[in-house]
Amino acid sequence: MPLALLALAIGAFGIGTTEFVIMGVLPEVAGDFGVSIPTAGWLVSGYALGVVFGAPLLTVLGTKVSRKKMLMFLMGLFVLGNTLSALAPTFGLMLAGRIVASLAHGAFFGIGSVVAANLVAPEKKASAISLMFTGLTVANIVGVPLGTYIGQAAGWRVTFAGVASLGIVGLLGVAKLVPEMGRPESADIRVEFAAFRNVQVWLAMAMTVLGYGGVFAAITYITPMMTDIAGYSSGAVTWLLVLFGAGMFLGNLVGGRFADRALMPMLFTALGALSLALLLFTATAHDKVLAAITLTLIGALGFATVPPLQKWVLDQASAAPTLASAANIGAFNLGNALAAWLGGVVIAAGLGYTSPNWVGALLSGTALLLSFLAAALDRRTRPTGRVVAQAAPAEQVPATACH
């Protein structure tokens, strides 16, 4: 695989770390600024909303410059946001720093997916995408636990300064390793928006919202579930999240490999197994060993859906994939926000800390039904040539260009 994928993975590692590490140092941040934990929670939700809105906005703006230059700009924005967070004298400026950093998130993964896929042969596109997302999954194994430890031992400001340093490394890597490929072919933004006339693009984003949202319904409330139900100590939750991250890492690689061979069967399998695992989690959460195993499986199955879903969007929006790809990244975060809210609703209703697992299973099961619908529509329209699906590469660009 090209070394340029390493630069993209480093950027993804930094983004994944800053997205999730805040959950590990939230009490310290709240204490320093003298705000409540729920108020400090805006640092999480504000980031997610920034991703949702920033992904399409910055991707649209990025159609006027080369993808390499846009990736460099996004990493610069990421560095600026995390530096502001590290130095913020007030909670409001800390929140502003989080939002600035989040604006780079969706566009980086959206444009990076297009770059990664075009770096390799058509039959290896999903694998290339999964290698870029490996940085995000490794962040949950290494970056988030390490950042949490540093934040608790040396202060949360040191953590965010370290994340900003990762962004600088990613920026230099993109500048050095990613080839220059010129502006996107569909520089006319009307062409990019035309991709959304395809119902398959909307189906893919709906599958993303519901499928990965099912994972976040459970993981958002994993601490009270593991401490109050499974009987773990609060300190052990960090290592349980390492297991979850390890599952994400393996699932992402497997999902990318098999999506290149049989995209929709891989998606059917991952979503069906994820729904079942979330259902089982309501029972296995009462046992320490079974809870740890199930949590790892949920991470693996949840992220096994990422490469096939992202590639499906690229295939369906092959004439103008950049905006659709970035919008799908925003859909992941929309799913996170939706699932976290629904999980809180059922807990507040008195159904217990395992009830979000039922919500997650319902969301993922609905995504599975949508995947059946998408496959049926694809089979029906493919002979007429109205849907390009997997018959064409994600974008017609020179062989030296990136996904």
Automatic annotation (TrEMBL):
Its main location: membrane. The keyword Repeat does not apply. It is found in: Cell membrane. The keyword Phosphoprotein does not apply. Residues 4-382 form the Major facilitator superfamily (MFS) profile domain. Keywords: Cell membrane, Membrane, Transmembrane, Transmembrane helix. The chain crosses the membrane at residues 42-61, 73-93, 99-121, 128-150, 156-178, 199-223, 229-250, 262-283, 289-309, 330-352, 358-377. PROSITE patterns: MFS. It is a multi-pass membrane protein. PANTHER family: CHLORAMPHENICOL EFFLUX PUMP RV0191, PURINE EFFLUX PUMP PBUE. This is MFS transporter. It comes from Streptomyces spinosisporus.
